[in-house]
């Protein structure tokens, strides 16, 4: 018999993860390597170090070391806000009248409001240890910029954030939060970079895109002394830092002998999903479990469900290495009415590989359904979820309702990646029934696909 399971499962000090888990080490079929866009050969650390810190470059390229020790300084940083709560959603189960058991891992308890701080801390720490004095980055919805602003303040580094223009206008409080922590926030495209000026020349009214903000941040990092660029998602080292989510969740569940049948996460660039599922996926790859894994993405930016598996650039200006990933094309920009976050054109390469090898499922949902699920959840559980996280909620509710039909008592775990306090404009448009759904047509997608580079590896 199982013990009665508490609403929150706590971890003892000695149960806190001391290592990050590198899932790639346990994949028999590895993700394709990044390519240098000039030579089309796999990138070396020399190619990446002008842009990124040495330590994260090593982590990015390493696909053989299973466990990577978390330095003491980062364990101390994590201790300020971790472990994050692992919650049994008793009230949601009751509201849904489902026989399923639902659990969620809640990453929204820190001021940045999301899991992003789990990688912001390490990235700022490594930059400081390498003797750098400033960092640049981009932010879309603002969570990553907020997390970096917190981490840079903590480690005494200067930070410039290129914030997608539409989002800096929709979310002035996000901008104010970053500035309060001491960051410089520049709406993108801007006239501070060549890339920005070029884009403004051709399209002065553009609302901006993540891809463009990334290009601006990289340009500034490369041109500034003792400065590097940091990225909050997509890359493997970010996903690695996020594995603290899955490691904590697994330890907590194992204390009560709970084995999830289904694990669900929302997917933008893939870092919270990848961080949550990695340790569980490792067991599945080893044949030790039969867990299903589900990625949930917006129907307006469907890189898994309607994207191509191809080598593409990570940014609009085509400055990054080529990454083999599920992509809508580096020139794809989701419809401006999309308020639910997760707007990136590509997807982490490891998750893309797992998807193409049949280990990871994906589904796309429209934003009005996402907000229905969000409100259902907040009324039951008392937490205002981020729109991004609500993609995972939607799928968790659907799976629980499926159990209600079949009478199965499945165990569902989902990632509640953050809170929605800065997303009230979107909640207001939902409340006022002004929120609409726009699913890109095949022709819209073709325009994006046309921006994927035509290289031999892609044919
Ligand atoms: C950034 C963000 C996401 C999406 O990013 P991933 O790298 O896919 O995890 C999801 N949820 C929240 C709350 C976020 O801030």
Structural class: alpha/beta
> Which ligands accompany this protein?
pyridoxal-5'-phosphate
Number of strands: 15
| Spatial order of strands in the largest sheet | 1-4-5-15-10-11-14
Rg computed from alpha carbons, rounded to a whole number of angstroms: 21 Å
Q: Low-confidence spans: pLDDT under 50, at least 5 residues?
A: none
What's the architecture of the domain at 8-16 and 70-111 and 237-444 in CATH terms?
Answer: 3-Layer(aba) Sandwich
Overall pLDDT: 95
Provide tags for this entry.
16% strand, binds pyridoxal-5'-phosphate, 18 helices, single chain, seven-stranded mixed beta sheet, 459 residues, Rossmann fold, alpha/beta, 15 strands, four-stranded parallel beta sheet
How would you describe what is shown here?
The protein is of the alpha/beta class and 459 residues long. The protein has a domain at 8-16 and 70-111 and 237-444: Rossmann fold. The protein is 40% helix and 16% strand. The protein contains 18 helices and 15 strands. It has helices spanning 45-48, 54-61, 72-79, 90-96, 117-129, 143-154, 165-170, 172-180, 194-202, 210-223, 236-241, 243-255, 271-285, 349-356, 367-381, 387-406, 424-431, 442-449; strands at residues 8-9, 19-21, 67-69, 86-88, 101-106, 134-139, 158-164, 184-188, 227-229, 262-266, 292-298, 308-313, 322-327, 361-365, 411-416. The strands form four sheets. Strands 1-4-5-15-10-11-14 form a seven-stranded mixed sheet, with helices on both faces. Helix 9 runs antiparallel to helix 10 (210-223). The longest helix has 20 residues, at 387-406. The protein is globular, with a radius of gyration of 21 Å. The mean pLDDT is 95. The site of pyridoxal-5'-phosphate has 19 residues, from helix 6, helix 13 and helix 16.
């Amino acid at each position: 018999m199982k013990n009665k399971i508490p609403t929150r499962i706590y971890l003892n000090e000695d149960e806190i993860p001391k290592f990050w888990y590198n899932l790639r080490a346990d994949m028999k079929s590895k993700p394709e390597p990044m390519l240098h866009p000039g030579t089309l050969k796999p990138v070396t650390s020399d190619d990446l170090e002008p842009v990124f810190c040495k330590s994260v470059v090593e982590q990015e390229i390493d696909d053989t070391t299973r466990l990577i020790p978390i330095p003491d300084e980062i364990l101390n940083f994590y201790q300020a806000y971790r472990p994050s709560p692992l919650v049994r959603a008793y009230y949601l189960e009751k509201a849904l009248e489902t026989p399923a058991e639902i659990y969620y891992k809640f990453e929204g308890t820190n001021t940045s409001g999301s899991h992003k701080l789990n990688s912001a801390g390490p990235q700022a720490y490594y930059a400081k240890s390498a003797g750098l004095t400033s960092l640049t980055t981009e932010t879309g919805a603002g969570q990553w910029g907020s997390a970096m602003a917190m981490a840079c303040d903590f480690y005494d580094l200067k930070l410039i954030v290129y914030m997608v223009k539409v989002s800096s206008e929709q979310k002035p409080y996000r901008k104010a939060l970053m500035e309060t922590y001491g960051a410089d926030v520049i709406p993108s495209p801007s006239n501070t970079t060549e890339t920005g000026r070029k884009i403004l020349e051709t399209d002065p009214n553009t609302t901006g895109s993540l891809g463009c903000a990334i290009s601006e941040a990289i340009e500034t990092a490369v041109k500034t002394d003792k400065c590097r660029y940091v990225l909050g998602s997509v890359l493997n080292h970010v996903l690695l830092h996020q594995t603290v989510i899955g490691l904590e969740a697994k330890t907590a569940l194992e204390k009560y002998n709970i084995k999830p049948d289904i694990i669900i996460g929302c997917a933008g660039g893939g870092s919270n999903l990848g961080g949550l599922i990695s340790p569980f996926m490792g067991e599945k790859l080893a044949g030790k479990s039969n867990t299903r894994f589900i990625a949930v993405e917006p129907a307006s930016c469907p890189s898994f469900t309607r994207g191509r598996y191809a080598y593409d650039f990570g940014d609009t200006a085509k400055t990054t290495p080529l990454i083999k990933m599920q992509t809508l094309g580096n020139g794809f920009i989701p419809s401006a009415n999309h308020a639910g976050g997760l707007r990136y054109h590509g997807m982490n390469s490891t998750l893309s590989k797992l998807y193409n090898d049949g280990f990871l499922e994906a589904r796309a949902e429209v934003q009005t359904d996402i907000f229905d699920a969000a409100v259902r959840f907040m009324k039951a559980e008392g937490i205002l979820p981020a729109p991004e996280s609500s993609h995972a909620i939607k799928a968790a509710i659907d799976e629980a309702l499926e159990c209600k039909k079949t009478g199965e008592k499945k165990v569902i775990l989902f990632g509640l990646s953050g809170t929605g306090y800065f997303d009230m404009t979107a909640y207001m448009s939902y409340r006022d029934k002004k929120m609409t759904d726009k699913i890109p047509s095949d022709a819209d997608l073709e325009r994006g696909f046309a921006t994927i580079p035509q290289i031999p590896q892609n044919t």
